[in-house]
Design goal:
Helices cover about 10% and strands about 10% of the residues. It is largely without helices or strands and about 100 residues long. The protein has one domain. The protein is globular, with a radius of gyration of 13 Å. InterPro entries: Amidase/PGRP_sf.
């Protein structure tokens, strides 16, 4: 399966304001496999920026999307982001949500 280059269109169709961080369509850690649903994660840090998500100092792309307090969604990258860590959901192993 290809990377989710369609994310901005889908989000805008739902009425969200979407910005695109420079280089977003070339950023990520490889290509996606099958995409069957969203994975939600937060950095939990006050004042995080799209740049901090797109160009994280140790993770590279930390997430495909940045959600600002004002509701603006910024596409940071369309490739795989290695930041999910441990978690669980039906069909996802408890050991890690990032394969």
């Amino acid at each position: 399966m290809a990377d989710p280059v369609w994310l901005p269109d889908v989000l805008r169709a739902e009425g969200l304001k979407v910005d695109i961080y420079p280089g977003a369509f070339e950023r990520g850690h490889g290509d996606f496999g099958t995409i069957w649903g969203p994975f939600m994660h937060h950095t939990g840090s006050f004042g995080e920026t799209p740049r901090g998500i797109a160009q994280h100092s140790s993770l590279g792309l930390a997430s495909q999307l940045h959600l600002a307090p004002n509701g603006v969604v910024t596409l940071c990258g369309v490739g795989v982001a290695w930041h999910a860590g441990t978690g669980s959901w039906p069909g996802i192993p408890r050991t890690t949500a990032t394969p």
